[in-house]
Design goal:
Layout: E1 8-13, E2 17-25, E3 29-34, E4 37-42, E5 46-51
Antiparallel strand pairs: 1-2, 1-5, 2-3, 3-4
């Protein structure tokens, strides 16, 4: 997953999909820089991370 750092990604959870630049991933959270600001997603909620098309 570290190869996605700095790239435009789509992060899918059970509730929604987030799109933004993947800034950092840790064991606890994922940081995205999205169009509307920063998004912090708990890692346990993430189902999938894909490169945005």
């Amino acid at each position: 997953m570290s190869d996605l750092t700095g790239r435009d990604v789509v992060v899918c959870t059970a509730e929604t999909m987030y799109r933004g630049i993947l800034i950092e991933m840790s064991e606890e959270v994922i940081y995205l820089k999205a169009e509307g600001g920063w998004v912090v997603i708990p890692t346990e909620k993430v189902q999938r991370i894909d490169l945005a098309e």
